[in-house]
Amino acid sequence: MSMDEKNTSALGAEKKRPPRPKNIADRVRDLLFDTVLAQECYLWDVEYVKEGADMILRVVIDSNEGITLDDCERVSRAIDPILDEADPIENSYKVEVTSPGVERPLTRPDHFEACIGDEIEVRLYAPLNGEKTLRGILSAAEEKEFILTRENGENITIAKSAAAKVSTVFNW
Predict the structure, then answer these.
(1) Which residues pair with residue 56 across a beta bridge?
(2) Domain tally, the chain
């Protein structure tokens, strides 16, 4: 089984390139997609954020086997020449290659698809039935909403736009 098939079947990774990029993070994601895949990993996310005085280009990678420090180093070495040549960001920035962690944020449609069946925590902008934080199993996901199944079996449909933060839960 190829790495592409493995990623798609086990974790719902994208099989095709993402649609035409719009912002810096999307442009970099498109630029690095194949290179990260060639390193037997896939892009979980790309962020371009200000932290203190620095601009950080955070390349978040994952694989079916999880991510090690060696994976991060290997991917970092593979993407450096591509970023240098393409020069997708005008200003100076630092590159950080990392894993999404065990309690990973779900921000993209492929994140939700990959985590169906996992326990998640949802923080809402406004209370729903008096609660702003909900936990349960992500049982379905569509473009604009997802279904959370609570421990008591109750299914709650939540609009993605109503969720301030959605992340997986790791029971320590």
Answers:
(1) 49, 94
(2) 2
pLDDT tens string 82-128: 999 999 888 999 999 999 988 999 999 999 999 999 999 999 999 99
Point out which residues pair with 141 in neighbouring strands: 146
- Tokens 């492929």 locate to 110
Strand partners, 158: 146
- In-domain check, residue 104: no
SS3 at position 108: coil
Indicate the residue type of 88.
Answer: P
Is residue 89 one of the residues assigned to a domain?
Answer: yes
pLDDT digits (tens, 9 = 90+) for 23-70: 899 899 999 999 999 999 999 999 999 999 999 999 999 998 999 999
Sign of CA dihedral 6, 9, 13, 16: positive
Rounded distance between C-alpha atoms, residue 163 and residue 144, angstroms: 11
Residue 105 DSSP label: B
Q: Which among 14, 15, 94, 112 has a CA at the least distance from the CA of 58?
A: 94
94-98 vs 54-62, strand pairing mode: parallel
